[in-house]
Each structure stands twice: as C-alpha cells, then as structure tokens.
Amino acid sequence: WSTGQVDGKRSPPVKVLSGQLRAAGTRGAADSAEGYVIRAGRGRTLRVSLVWMQGTVLEVQLGGTTVMLMDETGTFAVQGVNNIPKGKPCLLPGKYVMVMGVIQAVSPEPVIRAVKIADLSDFAALHRQMWKLEVEELQQVLA
C-alpha cells in the first residue's frame, strides 16, 4: 500500500498520530516508493506521505507561517499555513483543528506541509475522543 500516485491521482490521506510519525522508518525504502513507514498496530506497517492529523493549536510561529499542534501522543509542526485559504481564523492557541498535509520530516518531531486546515473546535471534545479510534480503525483496514 502506498499513499503516492495511484493511476495518476494522489491517494487519500492516511489518519495518523504524531507519535507514529516520530517512530517512523526512513523515507524511500528498497522499493523506492515515497513516504515513511509507520507501525499500524498488530505488527503491521503502512507507507504514508499524505496524512490527516488532528490536534490542539499550541502556538503560531514565524510570522504566521508555522503552527505547533499537540495530539494525544505529542507535538508536531505544520508549515505553510499562510497559504491555506480560510485556514487563518482557526489558528489560535487552544483551537482544535484538522490538518491534511504532506510529511516533510519525522525527526526530531513531525513536520507537515499543510494542504488543508479545518476548525473542529465546535465539537472538540467529541473529535478528541473519537480521533484515536478513527486512526486505529482506518489503519487496520489499510494495513
């Protein structure tokens, strides 16, 4: 399974937790496919490059181009947020957001280049509770 190109189209994003990216294997294994290899539970692995993550905004850095988010497993950085239409209003500390983006780095902490950002703050408690289960369920299907 690859999240690169499939029939000329980018595969859908894979839901991941920051801790999974932090522990990911390096980019481009022997088969030279793009992405990083994450552990998807029960000894299975997945190769990911386009990811869907959720977390709470901790701080906005570097003139509003980068934000730090935190999920249940740690922190991660999201770059290029200034290029996302309608992304700015939800980028305030304490807001709970969804980010879809391309992995730029996994160490020392995950860095994602944003493609889409959405504010989930209205139902943050529900989204937070369900997120880890959603990640596990999708990865079981894909792995």
From TrEMBL:
InterPro entries referenced in this protein's UniProt entry, alphabetically: NA-bd_OB-fold, RMI2
Entry keywords, A to Z: DNA replication, DNA-binding, Nucleus
Recorded superkingdom: Eukaryota
GO cellular component: cytosol; nuclear speck
Predominant location category: nucleus
GO biological process, one term: DNA replication
GO molecular function, one term: DNA binding
Subcellular location: Nucleus
Family: Belongs to the RMI2 family.
Protein task: Essential component of the RMI complex, a complex that plays an important role in the processing of homologous recombination intermediates. It is required to regulate sister chromatid segregation and to limit DNA crossover. Essential for the stability, localization, and function of BLM, TOP3A, and complexes containing BLM. In the RMI complex, it is required to target BLM to chromatin and stress-induced nuclear foci and mitotic phosphorylation of BLM.
Assembly notes: Component of the RMI complex, containing at least TOP3A, RMI1 and RMI2. The RMI complex interacts with BLM.
PANTHER family: RECQ-MEDIATED GENOME INSTABILITY PROTEIN 2 (PTHR33962:SF1), RECQ-MEDIATED GENOME INSTABILITY PROTEIN 2 RMI2 (PTHR33962)
The protein, known as: RecQ-mediated genome instability protein 2
